[in-house]
Amino acid sequence: MRTIDQTTDEILTLAATHFKVPRAGLAAGDDFYKKLGIDSLQALELLTRLENHFGVELPDYEVQGVSDFRTLASRIQARL
Amino acid sequence: MDEYKGKSLSWRFADGVVELKLDRAPANEIGLSMLEDLERFVAALPALESRASALILYSEQKAGFCAGADLRELYTQAQKMEAKAAAKGVREFLNRIHAVLNRLDTSPLTTIAAVHGVCFGGGFELALVCDLIIADKMARFCFPELRLGLIPGFGGIPRLKRDLGNAVVRDLLLTGRSINATKALAAGLASQVAAEGEALRVARATAAQVTKFDRTTSAAAKQFIKPLPVEDLQREINIFCELFSRPAVMEGLRKFVEDASAHPYLP
Q1: For position B109, which CATH number holds?
Q2: Domain locations in chain A as residue ranges
Q3: Is B267 near chain A, with CB under 8 Å?
């Protein structure tokens, strides 16, 4: 099973690919709204991408108030 | 009228299939402009139904199929009126949109929604009038009305009840969460999931299949298996109008429209 670090790394890679930003510029503690310059609609796109990639279902209320990649990863990890 | 281009949508008929394209930036929000264009389409429908077998609804907007009611327009208009006039205006709008959606729901054509991106609120309700939903892998379905202190008002609850298991309906309505295409397929909401960007192509292939069959037989089968929940649809309008009159709703709308820090697509 993936470790939380692996999950976080995959999330950062997926986010970088989807929003076409350099992977090296993203860190686990970053605020993904600010770092990626996205709104809630685009955050939903990221959520869908993550659900499809990890094969989990993550109700969007579970990411309410979540704005950094690390916490997002912990939410995903809890479903693996 | 085989082709039409309006402010919010366009349609064309060819080879037994009508294609209705929603095209109002940013996300096909259903306000007065979209409603009027949908009414034009419904007026043209009888002539199309005499020659077509299938109808595809899809969106040209990148954001998705349809994000639902135009809440900015609703809030702006309601702010200008006294509460009673606003309530009357809301009921009139609901009656008109219900007339459109009921007509699409009961069309003898096999109706197919090709859904990508957001399919929220009234947009979800528009998809639900269709016989088949083809969901793009990135599609998301949601009834966010609860977040505004409302229930779906365009016929979503009776149609969900008609089509899905009660547990899924409760989940969608009571949590206000969005579900992805995979979940929609598992729940029986979507009939197929297409790869990203492929929903329209799959919908066209499905429509082409439908055109092979006798139209009268298909229409008779559809009428038998897809009753219109008339009483529940009227009850939904009444409950929506009662809820709309509460101050919390206007506050919810104000926050959606005016608060730059809000994340309107998340709960």
Answers
A1: 3.90.226.10
A2: 4-77
A3: yes
Enumerate chain A positions whose Cβ falls within 8 A of a Cβ in B: 39-41, 43-45, 48-49, 51-52, 57, 59-61, 63-64
Right CATH number for A4-77 from 3.40.50.620, 1.10.1200.10, 3.40.50.150, 1.20.120.530? Answer: 1.10.1200.10
Least CB–CB distance from A44: residue in B176, B183, B265? B265
- Report yes or no on B267 lying in a domain: no
ipTM: 0.90
Cβ contact (<8 Å) for B140 and A43? no
What domain count does chain B have? 1
**pTM score:** 0.95
B66: containing domain: 3-258
Grouped pLDDT means (10 residues each) for chain A, 80 residues: 95 96 97 93 94 95 92 96
A43, A48, A51 ranked by CB distance to B266: nearest: A43
Smallest Cα distance from B137 to chain A, Å: 8
Q: Which residue of A has its CA nearest to B267?
A: A61
What is the reported pLDDT for B267? Answer: 73
What percent of chain B stands above pLDDT 90?
91
Instruction: Name which of B63, B264, B267 is nearest A64 (Cβ-Cβ).
Output: B267
Mutate which: B66, B168, B255, B266, vs A, most A CBs within 10 A: B266
Confidence of residue B264 (pLDDT cuts 50, 70, 90): confident
SS (H, E, C) chain B: CCEEECCCEEEEEECCEEEEEECCCCCCCECHHHHHHHHHHHHHHHHHHCCCCEEEEEECCCCEEECCECHHHHHHHHHHCCHHHHHHHHHHHHHHHHHHHHHHHCCCCEEEEEECEEEECHHHHHHHCCCEEEEECCCEEECHHHHHCCCCCCCHHHHHHHHCCHHHHHHHHHHCCEEEHHHHHHHCCCCEEECCCCHHHHHHHHHHHHCCCCHHHHHHHHHHHCCCCHHHHHHHHHHHHHHHCCHHHHHHHHHHHHCCCCCCCCC
